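Hi R.,

Here's the chain you asked about this morning:
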Amino acid sequence: MNNGTSAEELYRLLHQRPFHPFRIHLDDGRSFDLRHPDSNMVLRDTLVVGVMPRSDDPDPIPDFFEWVYIPHIRRLEPQPPVSSSGS
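And the predicted structure, written out as tokens:
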């Protein structure tokens, strides 16, 4: 049902250096931004997504977690890097 996104691909994306943020789009219309590699965890068939309070917040500590069944991921979309400077 998905675009072929696998646990291995998600793990690779979360552990690449430098890290590049990305968005996951689900088959139910929801999407989540993965902006910090340490705020997410890949399991065999599930992605635990740390949901951040605001899209412009550089703090890597999530407000809560969503459990996403990997086969429900429709596509991945690159996102701009998160700025760590407080201009």
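The chain has one domain: 7-78.

Let me know if you need anything else.
M.
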